[in-house]
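notes to self, project folder thing:

trying the whole complex as one job this time. last attempt i did each chain seperately and stitching them together was a nightmare. two parts in total, labels are on each line so i dont mix them up again. if this works i'll redo the older ones the same way
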Amino acid sequence: MPNTGVLMDKISGNNTIARFCDKKSISASGRVSGTAFKLRPRDKGNLSTNWVEYIESTMHKNALKHLQDFYNKIMTDTSNAKIGYLNVKKTINYVKRESKDNRKLDIYHNGKLSRSNPSHSIITGTELDEMEIFDLLAETLIATHNF
Amino acid sequence: MDTLYRNFNKQYTPIVAQNCLTDSSSNTNFLDEVFLTSETAETSSTVNTKSLGHIPLPCPTRTERVMVMAHTPSYNKSAYTQGALTDHIINELTRNLTLTLENNSTSTYEKETDTRLIIEQLINEIDSPYKKDLYERLLFLDSPNDDPEDSPMLTGSLKHLFNFIKAHNPKYPDLFLTHDGILRSEWYRDNEHYFFAEFLPSGFVRYSSGIKSKKDSSQTERNQGRVSIDKLLPLIKATNAEHWCIDG
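result (full assembly):
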């Protein structure tokens, strides 16, 4: 478990997480590149996502609408961006099966203590500049939604 | 600078300033270290993300009140005095940060140079059927980022991409910009046939490739690594990606 000092729960396999995909990570034809999953130094090894079912069942909100509103607030522009959905089990299994080192990813809910982003979740198990893993994550997208 | 203003005003990019000092020779105050920060989702606390170095602070404010501060909905006070931050202080600090950023060519928020001009110069040097599409895509990638913390396009990356196009006339790739300003070229047929290359300003290329295994068609052979740009074409050939990357 990553050491963030915050209570976290592992998200079970049949759940869905969402990732903001900026406009420059999307091809002219609408395909999302692995660049949308590239870790930033500030991520400290934890790739930011949001837990869709938490938004719906605990926050009692429409997940897509909530995420659109949330990203509209923190991003400069979202007009050409997308929100990508990933299934937890499919993502973990696919990356483990397809990566050269059978990489084991974990996905945690860590938004419990956050007032601004309570559905926040993270993918752990990747490092900076691991193109292969980011590209595999992009391959596991099950849906993308426009703003 | 609009980005900084907008995000500051939206209260999603708080500013933390530390160690307010006074230059006795000029009798001016400055902040020894200033960080643009993001509110971490899990704790609502702040983490340092970008150091902006010394920021002059000639605004008429009591210096101790801005020694350590963050401006967020949940935390809007000086950690030194525990007093509330006034709009005046925030506006003054924002203005001084903006002026400093505008005058600081090394800031990661500043574009290195007029990238559009370089794109126009480079595009005129190539003779390619996808010249117009390439030009339009690069202008799109040179537009302001969605995430205000992301870097603008690096001209070193741009020049190496063009050098490769000029030298080898590849098929038209999907082009992307990474958050650190690197141009990424993706020759993608499907999830079992692709070659992706990030053109680093250093003249190296970070790559990721996949091709369906000839030994076991249920498997995809994937590779990633880093090579100097002169080794890129041999690498494409060695990974059998030539037919969907290179014309002819």
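what i see at first glance: The longest strand of chain B covers residues 28-39.
need to look closer tmrw
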